[in-house]
Specification:
One of its GO terms (molecular function) is DNA binding. Keywords: DNA-binding, Transcription, Transcription regulation. This is DNA-binding transcriptional LysR family regulator. It is built from 11 helices and 11 strands. The chain is α/β, with parallel strands linked by helices and 305 residues long. The protein folds into 3 domains: 90 residues, Winged helix-like DNA-binding domain superfamily/Winged helix DNA-binding domain (Arc Repressor Mutant, subunit A); 98 residues, 3-Layer(aba) Sandwich (D-Maltodextrin-Binding Protein, domain 2), CATH 3.40.190.10; 95 residues, D-Maltodextrin-Binding Protein, domain 2. α5 links the parallel β3 and β4. α1 crosses α2 and α5 crosses α11. The radius of gyration is 31 Å and the shape is elongated. The two termini are 56 Å apart.
Length: 305
């Protein structure tokens, strides 16, 4: 289709201005709807009239009224604006900014305080976006990110892989998790106080167990009688009075259970580090990229340089 060069001076801003005046009934109301000052709206209409070489408003009366030519132009251009709105809506949807899916992995202790509040705000503005939140140990989550089953994960550091990019987001100190009515709850606590206590450990596959094993902790405190597969199971066992556990602070506060407390251990210093795990070789979907940008901005606001 050959374009008439004389028509190139007319654009969507002119059309939206004329249609806004027709719908609102006045220049001032139309300007407010478009977010511009009335003088700017008047300038748009004058430019449109100059481009077509005819008046679109009868200014001999007050308030100025649209001419028959203007009404005919409104009828001709209404389908154009409606089609443009539909096309832009489909474009945004196809780009994944309003519809689509988001798959996130996380260690359980990273969900309630760090991830869930941010994710809730993000999804509130995107009611058509579906979200999967998968909790597991770091190695499993990292494998799922590398395989494309997850867009990202928040977990302890996984083994090196060229398919992954891992960046630190949070440091968390280890301490003792116990019931608040436990004899130890009054503190202070030292490692020797745990020798005769029932300790609840974690599976050797977990990052928490590996950190404790590499910390120089006495072997007697590593070879626990009770072993849980997850932090959730540990906390349930602690709440039931079955024993105590060495855990990061955020893990202890996972459910904000008033019956479970966190105690610092005076002669034991260890930190668990959480990482943002992303694919290094696979492009992210627009919705995943948008959430990761939000997540990074949130982390930066918590820890300004």
């Amino acid at each position: 289709m050959k374009l008439n060069a004389d028509n190139l001076n007319i654009n969507l801003r002119h059309l939206r201005a004329l249609h806004a005046i027709a719908q609102e009934g006045s220049f001032s109301a139309a300007a407010a709807r478009l977010g511009i000052v009335p003088s700017a709206l008047s300038a748009l209409i004058r430019h449109l009239e100059e481009s077509i070489g005819a008046a679109l408003f009868d200014r001999s009366i007050r308030p100025a009224a649209m001419t028959p030519l203007a009404h005919a132009f409104l009828d001709d251009t209404a389908p154009l604006l409606e089609g443009m709105d539909r096309a832009v809506t489909r474009l945004r949807q196809n780009a994944g900014l309003e519809t689509g899916s988001l798959a996130i992995g996380a260690s359980p202790s990273a969900i309630s305080e760090l991830l869930a509040p941010l994710l809730a705000d993000f999804l509130a503005d995107k009611p058509q976006v579906r979200c999967l939140l998968h909790d597991d140990i770091a190695e499993n989550l990292a494998g799922m990110v590398a395989d494309g089953q997850l867009d990202m994960a928040i977990a302890g550091r996984a083994l090196y892989s060229p398919d992954l990019r891992q960046s630190e987001v949070l440091r968390d100190e280890f301490g003792l998790a116990c019931r608040r009515d436990d004899d130890l709850a009054g503190g202070p606590v030292r490692l020797r106080d745990l020798r005769d206590r029932v300790l609840i450990g974690l599976s050797t596959q977990t990052g928490t167990h590996r950190l404790l094993a590499q910390s120089g902790l006495p072997q007697a405190l590593l070879d626990t009688r009770l072993i849980a597969h997850s932090t959730v199971a540990q906390l349930c066992m602690i709440r039931a009075g079955m024993g105590v556990a060495l855990l990061p602070r955020n893990a202890v506060h996972l459910f904000r259970d008033p019956q479970i407390g966190f105690l610092r251990i005076e002669d034991f210093e260890l930190q668990r580090v959480l990482y943002l795990i992303e694919p290094a070789r696979r492009p992210l979907s627009p919705i995943a990229a948008a959430f990761i940008r939000l997540f990074r901005a949130h982390i930066a606001s918590r820890h300004p340089e």
